[in-house]
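User: Structure please.
Assistant: Input sequence and predicted structure:
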Amino acid sequence: MRPDNSKKRKRPSGSHNGPSPSNGLDTSKPTAVFKPTAGRASTLSVALPGSIIANAQSPELKATLAGQIARALAVFCVDEIVIFDDGQGNTTRPHRPEMPDDQQYTGFSDPDHFLIHLLSYLETPPHLRKHLFPLHPNLRSAGTLPSLDMPHHLRADEWCEFREGVTMVEERASTANSTESNFSKLGAKSGKGKQHTRANQPSGPVKTLIESGLKKRVMIEADIPPNTRVTLRFAEDEAAASKADHLIAEAVAPEVPREEVGYYWGYSVRRAPSISAVFTECPYDGGYDLSIGTSERGGSINDVSPISKFRHMMVIFGGVAGLEVAVRSDDELANLNVTGPEALFDHWVNLCPGQGSRTIRTEEAVWIGLMGLRKVVVDNAR
């Protein structure tokens, strides 16, 4: 073989692919990691109509739109997303009678359900999705959507005092010998001797096995049905957990990481049958004490009087035809003689005065609106 005498291009002596030695900063990995500072009692909620899905023409575009919405919710730390019916989402698409109703693709027949399905899937930590979300036509393109990478989307080698998990099986702490324990397991699997197993079941606290994404076995002392998502709190610190053979955790409410420590712990998803139900079915005690409606027909956000401190803030975006059609299709509001959306909100604002395009799509408005209100949210937490 003839030797290769071709000249190779010289690299500058300082060129490399790693971090710069001058400052030691490795920019190949994200550095904007969420770090809680103090517990946060306030919440930020967003509501928008599911009919925006009907405006996308293909299943792939519908999924992409849902991914854009989910990314905005994650970036701006939204705690609750409400999908409401504005009366514009009804579309006609042939039903497939050979498939069960719960296996039908709903991107055309029920846009609200489709958007809720995708948003819930994307919010769930990746290691839990296969347990909580069976294969479904709605999720066909979900693997191509961008990751949300929220604080509770932890890797197997990352430690946090809180973690999301899913219950797998139920076990009891056994004080009996291994022979009796094996006999009980054998009887349960074979379907024989069930009365014997129940009568001789070892005493002790019930422990439930949790799939948490960690490499170590995690148990909680609680009786929770399988395939239930739970928020875990670990008593051990990272050093103690690394030495333990298995971990015992405590099941806590999903809002505990936010309220007690200040973590952003994802968003909850709620469906509302109308725009008025966004308010009347609010899960927070006392409802939303600050509500903002967005429209190109609203006043400039720069001219709004100073927004007071809030506990639960709701920002509502309209669909293709705006919030006006949502109000007109709401029977409850019609009974109250409410004819315009501005009467529903503390502030009725235009978040992008002087827009250069004739229209701003809802998925764009969510990004623009949450960015415009970012200072209000940050100042409120101080």
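The chain is about 25% helix and 20% strand.
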